[in-house]
Amino acid sequence: MTQQKIATIFGATGFLGRYITQDLAREGYTIRAASRTPNKAFFLKPYGNVGQVVPFPCDGSKKDIEKAVAGADLVVNCVGILFEKKKDQFTAIHTDLINEIAKAAAKQNVARLVHVSALACDQGASKYAASKLAGEKKLAKAFPDAVILRPSVVFGTEDNFFNMFARMGRVLPALPLIGGGHTKFQPVYVGDIAEAVKNIATASPEAFKKFAGKVFELGGPDVVTFKDIYAKLKQHAEINFIALPLPWAVAKIEAAILGLLPKPLLTTDQVESLKTDNVVAAKGAKTLADLGVKVTSMDAVLPSYLKQYSYKKRKAAAA
Ligand SMILES: NC(=O)c1ccc[n+]([C@@H]2O[C@H](COP(=O)([O-])OP(=O)(O)OC[C@H]3O[C@@H](n4cnc5c(N)ncnc54)[C@H](OP(=O)(O)O)[C@@H]3O)[C@@H](O)[C@H]2O)c1
Fold it and tell me: pLDDT tens across 81-134, in order?
């Protein structure tokens, strides 16, 4: 009997993590869903057969990380935060944690490690970007064959981007176009990222050589600005609002206030991030195509979950 392969996923409970868990479970991997609060990972169990997806306690300590990766064939890290709740948390989560995971994986002779970073982390001046880039550098040193994925903004049913703006657009008369709304994005479908991880996991040793130690920039088929994103929201969620240009300086003041909320809608660091385009480099970048993934458009997916925000469609469904 062939032994089942083991994949340890840090951040399996998150938005990307649940899709990656699902795809790897389908490939027959036993999944260790490493989490600070393993109870939160119970919802992942139906993604596999009985006992195939195992919530695995991991408090982020060296000891717990080593236990989580011991004997694993594949380690995936998709832990991340968008704002700091305490000082230096970006460094702790985006730099130090992946460093410890990489060191533990190397020590335990794990064959493959995939790390989810962020697009344009080598360009922006935000603390978020700097911490992601520093994490990539530590990772490359500790586990040179690691595969780094840098997604642009990710869309899918549980995303915190289109859903958040749709919720806001439903109740507010206007939504901001920060810095005029000219920043470019290349939204990428969450299922395409999971497929990329699956392809890296299942590649033959020969094919894997093309991925090992490489950085991949993940973007979808559409390059859009915030104006375009708001247009998509209006179209698919059938909501109406005014798109209001907000100069950078005003956005910074607004973010300084909103940043005080326990779960801020906007922080000054995010305003800083928005000053850099979030698109796949025009030349030389390795992309989803190099990982064998055909990209999915926003129009193919957005209607399926944005329709819940449409009063018209909800009324029609209730009638
Ligand atoms: N979503 C996007 O649009 C996007 C775009 C570019 C890059 N990324 C990157 O992709 C990765 C996954 O993003 P996501 O959207 O799936 O994030 P998410 O839904 O917020 O999930 C993040 C995961 O990180 C873990 N986590 C959060 N805070 C933690 C902490 N203080 N200590 C330990 N673990 C913690 C959580 O696990 P537990 O609570 O179970 O421990 C959760 O499963 C992140 O690295 C993110 O920066 C995301």
Answer: 999 999 999 999 999 999 999 999 999 999 999 999 999 999 989 999 999 999
Q: Report the DSSP pairing between strands 242-246 and 6-10.
A: unpaired
Res 1 pLDDT > 70: no
Residue 80 CA to ligand 1 centre (angstroms) = 4
In the predicted structure, residue 2 carries a pLDDT above the cut 70: no
Output the ligand 1 site: residues, CB below 6 A.
11, 13-17, 35-37, 40, 60, 78-81, 93, 116, 118, 151, 153-154, 161
CA of 93 to the centre of ligand 1 (A): 9
Residue 117 lies in a domain: yes
pLDDT score at 58: 98
Which helix (H) or strand (E) segment is 122 a member of? none
Distance 150 CA to ligand 1 centre (A): 13
Q: Which domain holds residue 85?
A: 6-154+186-219+279-293
